[in-house]
Amino acid sequence: MSNNDQQWRVFKRLLSYLKPYKWLTFFALAFLLLTTVVKSIIPLVASHFIDHYLTNINQTALMILLGYYGLYLLQTIIQYVGNLLFARVSYSIVRDIRRDAFANMEKLGMSYFDRTPAGSIVSRITNDTETISDMFSGLLSSFISAIFIFVTTLYAMLLLDVRLTGLVAIFLPFIFILVNLYRKKSVHVISRTRALLSDINSKLSESIEGIRIVQAFNQQKRLKEEFDKINAEHVEFANRSMALDSLFLRPAMSLLKLLAYAVLMAYFGFRGLDIGISAGVMYAFIQYINRLFDPLIEVTQNFSTLQTSMVSAGRVFDLIDERGYEPHQENSGAKVVDGNIEFKDVSFSYDGKHQILDKISFKVNKGETIAFVGHTGSGKSSIINVFMRFYEFASGQVLLDGVDIRQYAQQELRDNVGLVLQDPFLYHGTIKSNIAMYQDLSDEEIKAAAEFVDADQFIQKLPDKYDQAVSERGSSFSTGQRQLLAFARTVASQPKVLILDEATANIDSETESIVQNSLAKMRQGRTTIAIAHRLSTIQDANCIYVLDKGRIIESGSHEELLALKGTYYKMYQLQAGSMGE
């Protein structure tokens, strides 16, 4: 598809967002049309005054002058109301587009976020939609206004003098040639400028989120050089865009307008008296040339905004049209009762090429705990990703209470499976809102959940207790405190299945005893799958599975695996030795 076709499709799609605001748009256009009519009448009034009353000031002349300035005042008021209505339409449309983009983003699967930088997504929903707003509030109104003014002005000029109108019309084809040239040359430059701005946002987001690591490893210089490189390229393309604007827009258009003035004045000088062109008509034509050229100049100046808006809208629509959703659930009405889990020969790959899980089979019943151990990349977290339905598995079967996991509604799964990650995520808000996760829970239920996992002890020592403010990602709390809050959040939802993804990996030994006690209480009566880094934390598991390159190579209780003296035994000896040191 050519750039022209693509931009036209994007433009038509943008216009479809006008439908809910058709009456508001109608009134905005009505005020715009009224403004152009008033603008066209003003030079006619001036022409009549110059030809008939300039040398004979009387009461009628004063009334005409009063009407003349009254029309200017009326034009200002009408134009203000029209612009206000267009602004309301514009911001309403941007709100709707942002809502659609955010809603679709929330449904996308993890694979999309694996390949798309967070800064790029943020840039599309904020910067790109703001550019669309500029198009609707400024460009669209100026473009429609230019059409109205063009038509009404030409009509008024023809009423005054056909010959002079013909002279001015000679310059109109040159205007359209300039606009077309600018459009063809600017598309690539503007597209690249917007893409580089997105890269800048991605680099900023990455640097801010990882600032501790950046400073810890003294990477400031490297990141600065990378940022400077992207920033410099952005400046280069922004300058190219400005150069095109400077060449094709106002200077070229202003030159055409001056030439039109020159031709008109020359014609009036040589032929005006002979063919009876009055001074009033000449004044009106000079005003009409301004009325004719200025809106066209404004439109061509805003053409870069149109190009930028089309590129930005295309990027936002790409996000809205993205269909890489999380795996589909059939929603057969199945309910999770006990939480018995079974994997049958499950294979999985992130990219469809490299096998991450290779015919994994295991079973765990209600109230039991199983654990997965293995070196980095062995497939431990992938088992969780498959069970949580973050990714679709290639073959095999995952059963929950004997029912294929695909048959459950997504909400049913989320309500009955509690996930605790190695690095717990806390939202900006309060402790209360983070535990409740915006569910309809009473203060007593929230407090009970915190007491159950022993989080209430440290919460009560805080100045505002459960109303204590939580900063971004909970950075004001220790890792152990954040983990206890994550436990309380999980317990509050009363899940039947508990998933622990290295929940104690980043916790110090003193806090670990508190966390382990909380975990033991959480696991009671629940089906639990644990991924463990510290083998000491899963010794009481009913069964421990040792993974290597996506396969289960050993399984059994802690004592049984030690007796095998295989991979698990070596891992345990290494950890025991390091702890002994």
UniProtKB/TrEMBL annotation:
SUPFAM superfamilies in the cross-refs? ABC transporter transmembrane region, P-loop containing nucleoside triphosphate hydrolases
Q: How does it sit in the membrane?
A: Multi-pass membrane protein
**Keyword flag Transmembrane helix:** yes
Signal peptide start and end residues:
none
* InterPro entries for this protein: AAA+_ATPase, ABC1_TM_dom, ABC1_TM_sf, ABC_transporter-like_ATP-bd, P-loop_NTPase, Type_1_exporter
Any transmembrane segments, and where?
Answer: 21-42, 62-86, 139-158, 164-182, 258-286
Compartments where located: Cell membrane
Name the major location.
Answer: membrane
One Pfam match, given by its short name, reads: ABC_membrane
Annotated ABC transmembrane type-1 domain ranges read 26-308
MF term (GO), any: ATP binding
Domain ABC transporter per the UniProt entry, residue ranges: 341-574
Write out the entry's keywords from A to Z.
ATP-binding, Membrane, Nucleotide-binding, Transmembrane, Transmembrane helix
Q: What is this protein called?
A: ATP-binding cassette subfamily B protein
